[in-house]
Amino acid sequence: MKLAVFDAHNDSLTEREDLEALTNRLDDGHWDLVRFAEGGGRWQIAAIFTPPKFSGIEALAYALNHLERALDWVERHRDKVRLILTKRDLKRWSHRNLALVGRRFTAHGSG
Question: 105: pLDDT confidence band, cut at 50, 70 and 90?
Answer without folding.
Answer: very low
